[in-house]
Amino acid sequence: MNAVPTVYLDHAATTPMVPAAIEAMTAHLGAVGNASSLHASGRRARRIVEESRETLAQALNCRPGEVVFTSGGTEADNLAIKGLYWSRRAGDPRRLRILATAVEHHAVLDPLEWLEEHEGAGINLLPVDGEGRLSPEGLRAAIETEPVSVAAITVMWANNEVGTVQPIEEVVRIAAEHGIPVHTDAVQAIGAVPVDFAASGVDALSVSGHKVGGPQGVGALVVRREVDLTALLHGGGQERDVRSGTLDVPAIAGFAAAVELAVKQQADLAARLSVLRERLVAGVRRAVPDVVLNGASAGSASGVDRLPGNVHLSFPGCEGDSLLMLLDARGIECSTGSACSAGVPQPSHVLLAMGRSAAEARSSLRFSLGHTSTEADVDAVVAAIAPCVERARAARA
Ligand code: PLP
Fold first, then answer.
1. pLDDT digits (tens, 9 = 90+) for 282-309
2. In a domain? residue 38
3. How far apart are CA 67 and CA 82, in angstroms?
4. Digit-coded pLDDT (tens) for 56-83
5. Residue 253 sits in a domain of what CATH number?
6. Is residue 340 flagged as an active site residue?
7. pLDDT of residue 302
8. Which domain holds residue 348?
9. Beta pairing, strands 332-333 & 310-314
10. Are residues 189 and 275 in the same domain?
11. Of residues 62, 318, 334, 340, which has the active-site annotation?
12. Do 125 and 259 share a domain, yes or no?
């Protein structure tokens, strides 16, 4: 056992399950019943699924029939992007372009790349500014080069690395002028900033259970009933014929309980985490004066420019991975925020798109705060960061 209590500051990777979700999930683990079966056990399972669907619909302000359960955010993103592309192209073979920001998660970028390689799609990755924000005018210009060729637009609600919140309302407004469907990956936004599906006007929105205090391996694509999607998984057609597979009833119950609570507590949590975030940034700045804060500045009073729990920092002269391991040895868990390919640290595509050099990108760490975070967690980082930075710099010298 580790004698040092862990300081867990990687909530954007996954956050601990909340007691309400554990309770909802465990209540059903021992029960038998396939939600598609007609007998009493099946009907009981179906009832739990449909009640969960209603809970999610209330929390996200969509209709219950608009919730398509998936195995998580990655599947929801793949279903939205490939499903929209194929159905829109079937409606008009000229619709071959998909527009996205250059800072999307790999669960969006990789299906886009795949469609380009195998399905004749043209992908336009739109630039972002130095804070990681899409320019709505850039989007408009990209559409207007040839509006009829745009199959779909996908813009994440909030970035998982630097926490920048995107101007979704404006994206929807511009897309609507041309009748183009919009998908948003809201995996990092739910429970962190206000998200209202109906009011947002998006056509499809991805959610993941384990980012909001629910179980891993479950999520949903919320998709307007009027929107046609081509199915990716074929089989029993359990979810609106657009997604097949026996539903994971306990996980769905836990997922719904977590989203319900996360949405209910969003404003309070955001207020508490913003204070912790500012304490962390100020403390690290005192300890390491040349540290650079990446992403949007603290944000407006409503905290909508930046996720309240996100602190993304570059430490000049350090490798983020070394720093991560030095902090880990002291019981502090965080992330570089970017992918590691075959053990070789890759500079983050997000920071590169924001105009940073590869070295700057590789010198970064993401601390993400969540519902279990405390002042003591923040103070532990502030106490540990200067000696760790010193050692990481010495290692590179
Ligand atoms: N989209 C974003 C923005 C994410 O942060 C993540 C998780 O890292 C995903 C999608 C993938 O979600 P899941 O882990 O549920 O597949």
1. 999 999 999 999 999 765 444 468 999 9
2. yes
3. 18
4. 999 999 999 999 999 999 999 999 999 9
5. 3.40.640.10
6. yes
7. 44
8. 7-16+266-396
9. unpaired
10. no
11. 340
12. yes
Q: How far is the CA of 74 from the centre of ligand 1 (A)?
A: 6
Token duo for residue 283:
């403390």
Give the domain-ending residue among 264, 298, 315: 264
pTM of the model: 0.97
- Atom of ligand 1 at shortest range from CA of 12: 5
CATH number of 380's domain: 3.90.1150.10
Burial class from Cβ neighbours inside 10 Å (0-12, 13-18, 19+) for residue 322 reads buried
**CA 208 / ligand 1 centre spacing (Å):** 7
Do 317 and 341 fall into the same domain? yes
- 1 occurs within a structural domain: no
Between 395 and 6, the more confident residue is 6
Report CA(93)–ligand 1 centroid distance (Å).
31
- Coil, helix or strand for 189? coil
**Is the shortest distance between the CB of 188 and ligand 1 below 6 Å?**
yes
Residue 357 vs residues 33, 298, 362: alpha-carbon distances, Å: 54, 23, 9
Q: One-letter amino acid identity for 112?
A: L
Residue found under tokens 């499903």: 83
Verify that 242 and 277 share a domain, yes or no.
Answer: no
How far, in Å, CA of 219 to CA of 229, rounded?
Answer: 17
How many structural domains are present in the chain? Answer: 2
Sheet containing 204-208: which strands, arranged edge to edge?
67-70, 219-223, 204-208, 182-185, 150-154, 97-101, 122-126
pLDDT in tens, 145-200: 999 999 999 999 999 999 999 999 999 999 999 999 999 999 999 999 999 999 99
Q: Is there a contact between 136 and 153 (Cβ–Cβ < 8 Å)?
A: no
